[in-house]
Fold this protein.
Amino acid sequence: MQRDSDKPTAKAARHRAIQARVDKKDEAKPEGNGRAKKDGHAMQAGARRYPEPPMPAQHLKKPGKEAELDLKPMYDAPYYRGSGKLDGMVAIVTGGDSGIGRAVSVLYAREGADIAVIYLTEDEDAAETKAAVEAEGRRCLLIPGDVADRDFCRGAVQRVLKEFKRLDILVNNAAFQIHTTEFEELTDQQFDETLKTNLYGYFHMAQACVPHIGQGGSIVNCGSITGIEGSKDLIDYSMTKGGIHAFTRALAGHLIPRGIRVNCVAPGPVWTPLNPADQPAEKVKEFGAKSKMKRPAQPEEIAPAFVFLASPQTASYITGEILPVIGGY
């Protein structure tokens, strides 16, 4: 019998098994010449300059560790100044060990919130997020586990309440993604893993948190441009992200009487471990080149949208919205 403590490790092993099958097919049918195709220069409009394609040609093993990325995602937002928008609040961030989740955790801490980071097995990444949150003068609780497991979600929320005595914000961000070039070859195993992580995980975490979030609290889900436009190679992933958008709007209406807002950020391409742990290394070079800004976003460019939607100071009249942050139309 598998012990509960083994479940996250087993899930990570399942992710790698699915990835190995897709990798084998990619090796048999190489695509493109590995060169990023750009029409003109990438747009730079931020407080500092961000990397442009070609990105490093690298393929990570699932679940994907930020510590192993050759080009580290930019998450610390040194020019962002906090102003107490989340002062005294407590936030749970799933998938907070890396990528968008790490950047959100850091900015939430800078705005005055204590953070509980839920992650699968990436202990090294989670430790760096914890250090970054504590450097902002806030507390950080690390909870490893599988958000697709309903009992784990309920137990994690109880740990947060025991540690912090309150709960104000849930950020649903943990996700599983891997491409499929032939629809007929999308296996039940992959389909099931994608749905359970991306939909069951969001549902179970929200259901566990809602009874404990008071008036003025909020849920911010991470959707995707693939849930709006679809992606021919990410059919199951696109399906879950569209479901997350619908879940956001439905739950938002349901929770209006309780004073809990529910919104969603739908990013375009973002430089996180998710895509290098999906695409072949040569294809990773082109990541973000097809966006209107001709580069992927960095996590620190997405995180302020999560602050905006979570804060009762800035978004008190906003619920059920899907906010695309995709680098232009």
Remarks:
- Residues 84-325 form a domain with the Rossmann fold fold (CATH 3.40.50.720).
- Confidence is low (pLDDT under 50) at residues 32-38.
